């Protein structure tokens, strides 16, 4: 481990195919950070059990998330790319942190309320303490930066609260973790129907997945909601039109974006043409990643090697942290 580098940690749940939101909210930053920082990136398989108790697809999903991360440019020799369940130290730190998290604040978490609404028959304690487990993942490596999308902002605020409580009660063991994005604002990639964000499991026809084939990408983009266009020069964009521009900003060239911005401001925009252009730029962006993922997935042995070496690297850092934590709490009796 390079002691001069600052530490970065983040994770993605293996609950389905990765999409553009995962890419632009998280993975794009992982790839940029891997040269500058000491990075720990994990497949959050334990987190997925809070919402996906049926584990029939778990293994395939874990392999897919690993392959998708690598296909997007993550180098398993530079970072620790591992599975959350391979580090039993996570469970130990989670237990200690649970004593510092209060029922009231956990019940107020927006993601808990959303998920409780979506799965009223399974409001389990793991769902309630999800932000505590996430804090354990981050603190296990004493990470300072956490590259995540905007939907994780509240969880990171909670992580800072738990960290400060620990440090205050037992002594300064952890840095305060902060959400990270290379530009100032955290990213939220909107869904194509103008309602909510792209997601692994909801709203699949309005989400672009890294696994989508070219025709499906075109079909989804062409279905994006538009209207008959602005009637006054330089008028503000309705949210669903703003979203199409936002998506274009992610994958199209500066000239293309400028053309459609000008057309919009001059009231001669043709949304059909704009969506055709966006669809082709999306195909150009997604198809090489999809093909790389498919080829990596052919080689299970390679993915097992990646997981093994990632766990080994991550365990070294986790063991040091757990020792510091036990000493700080006073659990060292010999
Ligand atoms: P999850 O899919 O919930 O496991 O999230 C994995 C990472 O992707 C987290 O850093 C999320 O913040 C990020 N993410 C998920 N959906 C989006 C989205 N639509 N826009 C931006 N970031 C996202």
Protein described:
The chain has helices spanning about 20-35, 45-50, 60-70, 90-100, 105-110, 110-120, 125-130, 130-140, 155-170, 215-220, 240-250, 255-265, 270-295, 300-330; strands at about 5-10, 40-45, 80-85, 145, 180. It folds into 2 domains: about 5-180 and about 300-330, Rossmann fold (3-Layer(aba) Sandwich); about 205-295, Tyrosyl-Transfer RNA Synthetase (Orthogonal Bundle), CATH 1.10.240. The two termini are about 30 Å apart. It is globular. Helices cover about 55% and strands about 5% of the residues. The chain is built from 14 helices and 5 strands. Adenosine monophosphate (AMP) binds near residues 189, 197 and 200.
The averaged pLDDT comes out at 96
CATH architecture of the largest domain: 3-Layer(aba) Sandwich
CATH class of the largest domain: Alpha Beta
Please give the domain count. 2
Q: Rg from C-alpha positions?
A: 21 Å
At the fold tier of CATH, the topology name of the largest domain is: Rossmann fold
Number of strands: 5
Number of helical segments? Answer: 14
Please identify which CATH superfamily of the largest domain we are dealing with.
Answer: HUPs
């Amino acid at each position: 481990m390079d002691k001069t580098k600052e530490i970065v940690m983040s994770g993605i749940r293996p609950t389905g195919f990765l999409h553009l939101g995962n890419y632009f909210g998280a993975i794009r930053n992982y790839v940029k950070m891997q040269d500058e920082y000491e990075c720990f990136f994990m497949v959050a398989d334990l987190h997925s059990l809070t919402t996906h108790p049926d584990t029939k697809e778990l293994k395939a999903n874990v392999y897919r998330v690993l392959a998708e991360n690598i296909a997007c440019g993550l180098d398993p020799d530079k970072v620790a790319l591992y599975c959350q369940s391979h580090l039993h130290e996570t469970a130990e730190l989670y237990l200690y942190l649970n004593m510092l998290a209060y029922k009231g604040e956990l019940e107020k978490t927006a993601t808990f309320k959303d998920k409780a609404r979506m799965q009223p028959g399974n409001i389990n304690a793991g769902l309630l303490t999800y932000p505590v487990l996430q804090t354990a993942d981050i603190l296990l490596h004493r990470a300072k930066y956490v590259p995540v999308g905007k939907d994780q902002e509240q969880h990171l605020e909670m992580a800072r609260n738990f960290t400060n409580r620990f440090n205050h009660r037992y002594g300064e063991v952890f840095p305060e973790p902060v959400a990270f994005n290379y530009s100032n604002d955290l990213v939220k990639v909107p869904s194509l129907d103008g309602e909510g964000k792209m997601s692994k499991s909801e709203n699949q026809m309005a989400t672009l997945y890294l696994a989508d084939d070219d025709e499906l990408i075109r079909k989804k983009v062409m279905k994006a909601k538009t209207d008959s266009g602005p009637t006054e020069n330089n008028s503000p964009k309705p949210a669903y039109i703003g979203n199409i521009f936002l998506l274009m900003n992610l994958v199209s060239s500066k000239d293309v974006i400028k053309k459609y911005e000008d057309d919009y401001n001059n009231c001669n925009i043709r949304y059909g043409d704009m969506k055709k252009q966006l669809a082709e730029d999306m195909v150009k962006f997604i198809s090489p990643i999809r093909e790389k993922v498919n080829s990596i997935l052919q080689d299970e042995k390679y993915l097992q090697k990646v997981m093994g070496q990632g766990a080994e690297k991550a365990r070294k850092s986790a063991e040091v942290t757990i020792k510091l934590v036990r000493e700080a709490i006073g659990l060292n009796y010999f």
